[in-house]
Specification:
919 residues, alpha/beta, 8-stranded parallel beta barrel, 37 helices, binds adenosine-5'-diphosphate, binds magnesium ion
Length: 919
């Protein structure tokens, strides 16, 4: 979208007068053009730098080049809009005036940072350049003015290193190669006999710079540029280009960020945290982002710059110790913490630098947090009266609820296990799996269905794929703002980081904790709530919420449960959509009710045919050669089905239950390998050829489009009769209980594409209902409806609605038949579709709104044309997917139905849909 806008407006500006040209650069500082509402244009970082400047926080002055320029840059072969150069020049002058320094000047030179910043934060994915403006002359001026040669040359070598890497492309050639700058730096440290970079003397740094420049010249054939404006444009271009780098692209795919958004570029006066011991740099959160607790949380390094804190080279100090080291700064930070939360009304993640005892703010954003933290923070912000209920609900991603429901380690197993060591708890939950030292290994283990724990000294964006694949992440270095902790928060991964006693040796492929040595592939368990690490695969137990719901824990003893209950109560108040569950057994039904389901939206009867003797009778029924024999077998199945339905109705205590009649093709119930065929032949007392022939006869080329669904009931009405009888007899039994349960069974006919199919089956169901009621002497209400799961059913929904009393959209099959894609095989090409942006989401996980969604919409509309109050629901996998739920809300369905553990997620997603629609 912005791309189009830019094109149009720049064309216009070329034609008409320059005075009407689009504004591409927004200043912040003493005078601020932007604000936090302009994040589409300024990116999150730029918009919030402007906002902080506006509310009087100390922000070094600078300007933001808009995301529109990024799109222009991409669309025009890496060129810029004509008016940009003059705007940038003017903005630099504004900075120069404010700080009293000049870019490129050999006296008091202005130094700049050039930073990326997209609409949504993509931490570490794009590039930053610091200390821009330094060259062989200005570095001398900086040395004189700061009184420290070592400081000035340290800034210069950092700049060359970043510029060389990001702009000039001097970096490791492959995975086994080292970054050339790091290699040179290591040599210099060795030669100087020091272990830390900040121990290097000016002479060492000068030598280092000489070698840095040499490697740049050698690798690129060009010298490191000395002109400040050339440096500036080189950096701006590199940041815009980094929007398309592999890391950023992968990240966008994972989080569904459109490539068209682009990044902004922020240019800002440098402040220095590395000028000595009265300087520092740090990152902090206004609350704990791992568990949501209201404590000041963060870390800092004295005498350091930029990424030092998160790079894991020096171990940062927890923010609390700053209170003693720099009491004045700490007090200022506490004031900033309060002001930020009061202004942004959310937990903030901010970056700061202290230059000679003066605090500077470099960034703030709504902090990424774990699901648990999202819930706790939202609930507590309401208690603190900073936000209201509705705002709180919208701050909790629906999926976060599932992080309250994930298993924890079994308390008895945990008590018995010995804690080997403890790291920082960075991503709550319990995970166990095989030790993997490389991202590719973790991916391989996960691809085989195994559980991997990715164990790294520290993680980098290169590890992202492995982190996605792993159950949990363990690092031996790095603090609460390390890359591992950050990704864990965002992806709700179990994570323990900075476990200093864990010694990882990549070469030997060993992980050693004190004297215990683990090898690649050994089992290990990590508790991301406490930070504990255990040997082996520890048993897990239900979450606290589940324990309360099952009566094993008192609500008063679980703050987690209380928060869950609070959020669910708010969600139920605001949602319009009903939420049911897909459940086939009394146990599942009970769990569905505990999670707040208001009924069963889909009971699949075929699951009931597999247990114990039933499969034998089922097979007898299928192998029967005439109706008489088939009826005999069905008669044996009847009591089982009746018992199942009675159990289900009792468990649901009068809530609606939708029972779908037999759906899958019959061959699914027959054995396919030789030995099972023989076994079946023996048990039925028939020749094995009989079985083989029948299996052969039932074989279909396209079983998904085969003899299934209502087609079975039409071919063999006695199957429908038996199932209807079982349902109604079970209902009758419930009405006859001492304490009657008034069930209203909903009988659902699958795979209807023709009104005639439904009419045929409905007639059978009504006939049996009348029979049962008369025989049992109880009369009750029931409904007969259909699934809409083939396109023809949706398109002729008006005809079908004449007979149907409800519709349930079976979006799994509707996706298969609507897209002509088999759910079982689509995996082999959907990945490529996603990479090429042909299909951004897996259509079986999140509904294809434009195609399948349209079928749902047509079906709903046409159905309600005929029956105004026709009850409409959905029972595919999509019923538990927040994005799909938003769509179902919008088309006016009455309820969604999903698996029991997704019910709380669906309740919250339904509330979000209602709140967003009302906004
Ligand atoms: P990211 O988006 O990856 O967080 P940033 O643009 O925030 O990257 O830059 C990384 C770090 O560089 C910041 O956290 C800060 O420490 C340092 N930095 C950026 N701009 C400045 C500046 N103007 N003065 C001092 N340090 C800066
Ligand atoms: Mg940052
Ligand atoms: Mg189906």
């Amino acid at each position: 979208m912005p791309a189009k806008k830019v094109k149009k407006s720049t064309e216009k500006s070329v034609q008409s007068d320059a005075a009407k040209a689009v504004k591409y650069s927004y200043n912040f500082g003493k005078k601020t053009d932007g604000n936090s509402k302009l994040r589409e244009l300024l990116g999150g970082k730029g918009a919030n730098l402007a906002e902080m400047a506006r509310i009087g926080l100390p922000v070094p002055p600078g300007f933001t080049v808009t995301t529109e320029v990024c799109s222009y840059f991409e669309d025009h072969g890496h060129r810029y809009p004509k008016t940009l150069a003059a705007e940038v020049k003017a903005s630099v002058t504004v900075i120069e005036k404010q700080v009293g320094k000049k870019l490129g000047s050999d006296k008091d030179p202005l130094l700049l940072s050039v930073r990326s910043g997209a609409r949504e934060s993509m931490p570490g994915m794009m590039d930053t350049i610091l200390n821009l403006g330094l060259n062989d002359t200005t570095v001398k001026a900086l040395a004189t003015e700061s009184g420290s040669e070592a400081f000035a040359y340290d800034c210069y070598r950092r700049f060359i290193q970043m510029y060389g890497d990001v702009v000039m492309g001097v970096h490791a050639v492959n995975e086994n190669d080292h970054c050339p700058f790091e290699g040179i730096l290591e040599n210099i440290r060795k030669e100087a006999g020091v272990t830390l970079d900040n121990e290097l003397q000016a002479a060492d740094l000068k030598e280092l710079i000489k070698r840095y420049k040499a490697v740049i010249k050698q690798r690129t054939g060009t010298a490191f540029p000395q002109d400040a404006y050339e440096q500036l444009w080189g950096s701006v271009g590199a940041v815009f280009s980094s929007w398309q780098n592999e890391r950023a692209t992968l990240y966008r795919q994972k989080y569904g960020i459109p490539a068209t958004w682009g990044t902004a570029v922020n240019v800002q006066a440098m402040v220095f945290g590395n000028m000595g011991d009265t300087c520092a740099t740090g990152v902090a959160f206004t609350r704990n982002p791992a568990n949501g607790e209201k404590v000041f949380y963060g870390e800092y390094l004295i005498n350091a710059q930029g990424e030092d804190v998160v790079a894991g080279i020096r171990t940062p100090n927890p923010i609390a110790t700053l209170k003693d080291e720099m009491p004045k700064v700490y007090a200022d930070l506490e004031a900033v913490r309060k002001k930020l939360e009061r202004h942004f009304k959310d937990m903030q993640d901010f970056e700061f630098t202290v230059e000679n005892g003066k605090l500077w703010m470099l960034q703030t954003r709504n902090g990424k947090r774990t699901g648990l933290a999202a819930i706790r923070i939202a609930v507590e912000l309401v208690n603190e009266k900073l936000i209201d209920q509705k705002a709180a609900l919208l701050k909790i991603p629906a999926d976060s609820i599932s992080s309250l429901l994930v298993a924890v380690f079994d308390p008895t197993a945990e008590a018995k296990a010995k804690t080997l060591t403890t790291g920082l708890p960075a991503g709550p939950g319990a995970a166990s799996g095989k030790i993997c030292f490389a991202a590719a290994e973790a991916e391989a283990v996960a691809a085989k269905g195994g559980h991997a724990i990715l164990c790294r000294l520290e993680t980098t964006p290169e590890d992202l794929r492995g982190m996605i694949a792993a159950e949990g992440i363990l690092t031996s270095r790095g603090g609460v703002s390390s890359h591992a902790a950050l990704i864990a928060r965002q992806m709700n991964k179990v994570c323990v980081c900075g476990a200093a006693e864990v010694a990882i040796n990549y070469g030997a492929e060993t992980l050693t904790i004190r004297h215990t040595v683990f090898k690649n592939g050994d089992d290990i368990s990590i508790d991301g709530t406490t930070g504990e690490i255990f040997a082996g695969a520890l048993a897990t137990a239900p979450s606290e919420v589940d324990q309360v719901l099952n009566g094993k824990l008192k609500p008063a003893d679980s703050y987690t449960y209380q928060m869950y209950a609070q959020v669910m109560k708010w969600a139920d108040k605001h949602r319009k959509l009903g939420v049911r569950a897909n459940a086939d057994s009394p146990a599942q039904a009970k769990s569905a009710i505990a999670y707040g389901a208001e009924g069963i939206g889909l009971c699949r009867t075929e699951h009931m045919f597999f247990e114990g003797d039933r499969i034998t009778y089922m097979r007898q029924m299928i192998l029967a050669t005439d109706q008489k024999e088939r009826r005999k077998a069905l008669k044996k199945l009847l009591p089982f089905q009746r018992k199942d339905f009675t159990g289900l109705f009792k468990a649901m205590a009068g809530l609606p239950v939708t029972v779908r009649l037999l759906d899958p093709p019959l061959h699914e119930f027959l054995p396919h390998d030789e030995s099972s065929k023989h076994e079946l032949a023996n048990s039925l007392g028939v020749d094995v050829d009989v079985i083989s022939n029948r299996v052969h006869a039932l074989h279909e080329s396209n079983p998904m489009l085969g003899h299934r669904g209502c087609r079975l009931g039409i071919s063999y009405p006695e199957i429908t009769e038996m199932q209807a009888r079982a349902i109604f007899e079970a209902a009758a039994a419930c009405y006859k209980l001492k304490k009657p349960i008034k069930v209203i069974p909903e009988v659902m006919i699958p795979l209807v594409g023709f009104a005639g199919e439904l009419k045929n089956q409905v007639a059978v169901v009504h006939r049996i209902a009348a029979e049962v009621m008369q025989k049992k002497g109880v009369y009750f209400k029931y409904l007969v409806g259909t699934m809409i799961e083939v396109p023809r059913g949706a398109l002729t929904a008006d005809e079908i609605a004449e007979t149907a009393e409800f519709f349930s959209f079976g979006t799994n099959d509707l996706t298969q038949t609507g897209l002509g894609m088999s759910r079982d095989d689509a995996g082999s090409y959907l990945g490529r579709y996603k990479n090429l942006d042909i299909l951004p989401q897996n259509p079986f996980a999140s509904i294809d709104v434009a195609g399948v969604g349209q079928l749902v919409q047509i079906g709903a509309q046409k159905g309600r044309q005929v029956k105004k109050d026709l009850k409409l629901g959905v029972c595919g996998e999509h019923g538990g997917d927040p994005a799909s739920i938003e769509f179902f809300h919008a088309v006016g369905l009455d309820y969604v139905s999903c698996s029991p553990p997704r019910v709380p997620v669906a309740r919250l997603a339904a509330a979000h849909s209602a709140l967003r629609a009302n906004k």
